[in-house]
Known about the structure:
Blueprint: E1 3-4, H1 15-25, H2 32-47, H3 51-60, E2 76-78, E3 86-93, H4 99-104, E4 121-127, E5 132-137, E6 154-160, E7 166-169, E8 174-179, E9 185-192, E10 203-206, E11 211-215, H5 220-231, H6 234-246, H7 250-263, H8 267-278, H9 283-298
Antiparallel strand pairs: 1-7, 2-3, 3-9, 4-7, 4-9, 5-6, 5-8, 10-11
Amino acid sequence: MPLVIENPTAETCSLPEAIEALAECGFDPRDPDSTAVAANWLRRLTNNREFLAGILIDRLAGRTEGEVDNGYGPQAIVLSPKRGNMFLRANIWPAEHDLCFRNSGAKSFVYGVPHDHNFSFLTSGYCGPGYRSDYYEYDYEGVAGYSGEPAEFKFIERSALSEGKVMLYRAHRDVHSQLPPESLSVSINVMHVDPAQCWYDQYGFDLERREVARVLSPNATEAFLRLAVGIGSAEALEYAEWVGHCHPSDRLRFASFEARAARETGRSGQEELWLTAERSGNCMISAIAGQKLDALSEV
Length: 299
């Protein structure tokens, strides 16, 4: 489960102070000392009981000049621009009896959707009892990532992100299934940004079946690749072939095969591509290619 970082400090700081300090320390979730420094500044900001309300009122009154942005939909509020390898974010967690929950449903707030993350982040309970989570751990390297693939999870515990609690969610290790809090709650995150994270997938899981349900992290690179292949220049097709054989992202390699197969109007061309994919040596691509070939044989 995420690592609980004990930090009982009663000191406070402003949002600008936290942004500057976190940018200066260069938050590295792999380094315990760096993580401890970042967690200390997050706890100080959490102890400031006025800053977030002030920001929201300024936003509602039209007094802000864009320094706060809704980057992840209405639930999440970006509190700072990216500085170095991090940025700050606040998340709003409605309870079941809140109107926005009743209107939008649980999945709009990622409740009941077991998932991991392809990035690490620190989080703290800012106000309210906090969302609850069933926490699990799994071996990312042991999963290829295709839908329906068996995956083993180790259940750790169910707990809530209470006020002042600081935790480190570890990329590709911690899995949680979130449950609504007993009343409206807010958390604050220090998000770690890794340039390579878009090459690694984030998964949704089916805990009852103990398998991968789907990939949750499609990105612009994949969309651009599919579009370029669809347009069909010789350079685009040549690049897509390279991606299919050499790119470090399994998801992009599969997208290359799928985009090129979609261009083939004849069955033989599609079969040739999927046979190449099946022999690629990649577990995920080979498994899905086999499914594609089975589907073609039934046509």
